[in-house]
Every structure is written in C-alpha cells, then in structure tokens.
C-alpha cells in the first residue's frame, strides 16, 4: 500500500486582496489567529473550583511584510483612498508556493488598515528595503474555495 503525504509548504508567499484591490505578494504574514477570551467566576461556597466561561472572540491584527517593489504603489493608492473615510471591507490572504500552488486561504471580514511602515532610508545602508502593512479584522469567512 502506498501512502501519499503532503510536504510542508516551503518558500511560501502570501497574496493579499481587499475587495477588488490586489495588494500583491508578501513574504511574511504574522497574526493570523483567534482567541476566545475567558472570564473566571467563583461560585459561592465552592472554594475548590473556579468556572471558566467563554465571553467573546478576539482577533489579533495581521502584519504583512515584503521587500520594497513596484507593488508598494498599490498599497499607497489603497491607503490614500481612505482620506474620504474608512470603510470596512472583505479581504483574502492566500498562501502560495513559489510555483503557484495554493496552500491555504483565509477570508477576512471587516478589514481596516491600521498602519503602514515604509523602509528606513539611510545613506550607505545595504539592507533590503522592506515595507509592512498592518490590518485589523473582525473574523474569518468562508472563501468558497
């Protein structure tokens, strides 16, 4: 009997899209997750037990990083479009291998940009210039994939 095992995803890039705006590919994606906040309640007369009750769901901000490229202009256009007011949007992050195979996909609801950090430009600095965008969201949705 032959067993097929999927190899872990090496060399993954993260493609980001918010509504119909393609923000391009990123090399790092931090903060995808969810936390159920628990509240502790003590029951009167029962000193040996504390109730842990789920209260709400919390989603951390997502930070996406990449080297500075022509795609940076897409992010700048998207953020500059917020001058007329911030609207919550639907987003999608797709993890892909270097040859284009989709590894995983996350749909996000109520996406709002929180922060953009550009490169530090210094004379004689030979480091790769990077940018980071941080987005907030209110949960995951089915991507229909």
TrEMBL record:
<dbReference type="InterPro" id="IPR010667">
    <property type="entry name" value="Phage_T4_Gp19"/>
</dbReference>
<dbReference type="Pfam" id="PF06841">
    <property type="entry name" value="Phage_T4_gp19"/>
</dbReference>
<dbReference type="InterPro" id="IPR011747">
    <property type="entry name" value="CHP02241"/>
</dbReference>
<protein>
    <submittedName>
        <fullName>Phage tail protein</fullName>
    </submittedName>
</protein>
């Amino acid at each position: 009997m032959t067993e097929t095992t999927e190899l872990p995803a090496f060399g993954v890039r993260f493609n980001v899209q918010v509504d119909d705006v393609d923000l391009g590919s990123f090399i790092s994606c931090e903060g995808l997750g969810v936390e159920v906040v628990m509240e502790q309640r003590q029951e009167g007369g029962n000193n040996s037990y504390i109730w842990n009750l789920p209260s709400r769901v919390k989603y951390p901000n997502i930070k996406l990083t990449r080297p500075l490229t022509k795609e940076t202009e897409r992010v700048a256009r998207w953020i500059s479009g917020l001058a007329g007011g911030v609207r919550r949007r639907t987003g999608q992050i797709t993890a892909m291998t270097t040859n284009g195979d989709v590894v995983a996909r996350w749909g996000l609801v109520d996406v709002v940009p929180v922060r953009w950090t550009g490169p530090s430009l210094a004379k004689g600095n030979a480091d790769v210039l990077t940018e980071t965008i941080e987005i907030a969201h209110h949960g995951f949705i089915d991507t229909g994939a």
